[in-house]
Amino acid sequence: MKTIACAAIFALFLGIAITPSASARVSGPTANGIYRFVMSDDNQSKTVEFNATGDERGATGQMTYRDTSGAPEYDPDGGDRPKDAPEFYMTADLDSLKIENNRAVMGGTIRDSSIQSYIGRWVQLVVEDNGDGSERADRLAWCFCEPEPGGWVPVDAEDSRDDGAFMHWWATDAEVREDVGIESANIIPGTRRGCPAFVLSSYEFAEVTGEGQIEIQQ
Fold it and tell me: Taking the complete model, does pTM exceed 0.90, yes or no?
């Protein structure tokens, strides 16, 4: 079917998808594709390739990104991207996959990159599959996130039994049966295992120049 670094940059990518053959299909949920696109701000070629398959442990898969204009984070103080920046690439092992309707979010850890400081970061990829023949193009967004360090756990100094920081809940509309709700924030430092994940319907996508497909299977 057709078609977020730590500053949480979001962008839409369109490209060319590779669809697995019927004999290669698996029973679990999947999301896959290969994308070649151009962003309006630098007019340089970029490629994203990904595949993820859900399983009982979460997910398995890989994501590779290449950018001829250089690393996404090129100047923390602002300014123009260097014109002679070397091509940037990174490869991540994906370990999570969640699908809701025609959207999927997957995440993992960067294992290899042309820039050493990117290795060990988390990456999150969000895709939207709008089907063949749709007037609405398929969409994608992604971000890099720094692993969070450990630290002090919030506690009431006057109550030795305070364990509120460890509580967890979902906020939902009791009158809307289909409401998937919003998960409470985890405030225990060092326990997060990936980029923050939000309700899939809340993600926004930016337009770029390109063409292609995404495939999501539940």
Answer: no
Whether residues 187 and 198 share a domain: the answer is: no
The whole-number pLDDT of residue 139 equals 84
157 in a structural domain: yes
The pLDDT of residue 186 is 57
Q: Per the domain annotation, does 64 fall within a domain?
A: yes
Question: Residue by residue, what is the 3-state secondary structure of the chain?
Answer: CECCCCCCCCCCCCCECCCCCHHHCCCCCEEEEEEEEECCCCCCEEEEEEEEEEECCEEEEEEEEEECCCCCCCCCCCCCCCCCCCCEEEEEEEEEEEEECCEEEEEEEEEEECCHHHCCCEEEEEEECCCCCCCCCCEEEEEEECCCCCCCCCCCCCCCCCCHHHCCCEECCCCCCCCCCEECCCCCCCCCCCCCCCCHHHCCCCCCEECCECEEEC
Q: What is the pLDDT of residue 211?
A: 72
Domain containing 44: what range? 22-147+193-217
Whether 10 is covered by a domain: the verdict is: no
Do residues 138 and 212 lie in contact, with contact meaning Cβ atoms separated by under 8 Å?
A: yes
CB of 167 closer than 8 Å to CB of 177? no
